Amino acid sequence: MEQRKAQLERKSKETEIKAELNIDGQGKAKIKTHIGLLDHMLELFAFHGCFDLNLEVVKADLEIDIHHTNEDVGIVLGKIFKKALGEMQGIRRFGSAFAPMEDTLGHSVVDISGRGHCKFNFEGTRPGAHVGEEGYNLLNLEHFMDSFAKQLGANMIITINNSSTTADLHTITETVFKSFGLALDQATQVDPRRKGAVPSTKGIID
Ligand SMILES: [Mn+2]
User: Fold this and answer.
1) What domains can you pick out in the chain, each with its CATH number?
2) Distance 40 CA to ligand 1 centre (A)
3) What distance in angstroms lies between residue 204's CA and the mean position of ligand 1's atoms?
4) Distance from Cα 34 to the centre of ligand 1, integer Å
5) Gyration radius of the chain over CA positions
6) Which of 14, 49, 74, 92 could staple 68 via S-S, CB 3.0–4.6 A?
């Protein structure tokens, strides 16, 4: 099968981002968002999803805070996955995966249905309670995933079950990106039984 690839450049008054994606890759990533934690998380996401991903934030506006840059990276990723998937021919469409780290369990469910919606469940975790480097917190994570879901046209439900009192933001966030990479890998895989048909009773996913 031909590899599903896309390139994208997005310029706004706030940021400028370039990205390249191969969905049928090997998990090789080169990421430069200027947000250290997000670089690390996107490398994990690409590795566990077996996506080849190059993403560079050419212009960030971090002098304000990480809000726009974090959001815009999510937008670009949602767009580039949608672009690479094209008409969504033959994809599995649904994916679901858990990823544990110490006492924390991340769970991501993805349906590439055309309906962009993201719901976060924080179980045992107050979203504002954990703050990492550069002020990154779980509300930024939620905002990032929401931007991704809306642009991809995916229904995503992400649950963080954190029964630990000592888990830091890095650990919690990592369970989300790993489980999301695994779930999105499943959802974007081609099911040969579909023989290239769009996996919707409507006949299209848009
Ligand atoms: Mn780590």
Assistant:
1) 5-194 (3.30.230.40)
2) 7
3) 38
4) 17
5) 16
6) 14
How open is the CA angle 87-81-32, to the nearest 5 degrees?
A: 160
Cα-to-centroid distance, 31 and ligand 1 (Å): 15
CA of 122 from ligand 1 middle (Å) equals 20
CB 80 within 8 A of CB 21: yes
Q: Using the mean position of ligand 1's atoms as its centre, give its distance from the Cα of residue 101 in Å.
A: 10
Cα 104 to ligand 1 centroid, rounded to whole Å: 13
What is the residue-level pLDDT of the chain in tens, covering all 206 positions? Answer: 789 999 999 999 999 999 999 999 999 999 999 999 999 999 999 999 999 999 999 999 888 899 999 999 999 999 999 999 999 999 999 999 999 999 999 999 999 999 999 999 999 878 877 888 888 999 999 999 999 999 999 999 999 998 777 788 999 999 999 999 999 999 999 999 999 999 999 999 99
Q: SS3 helix, strand, coil % of the chain, rounded to 5? A: 35, 30, 35
Q: How far is the CA of 65 from the centre of ligand 1 (A)?
A: 22
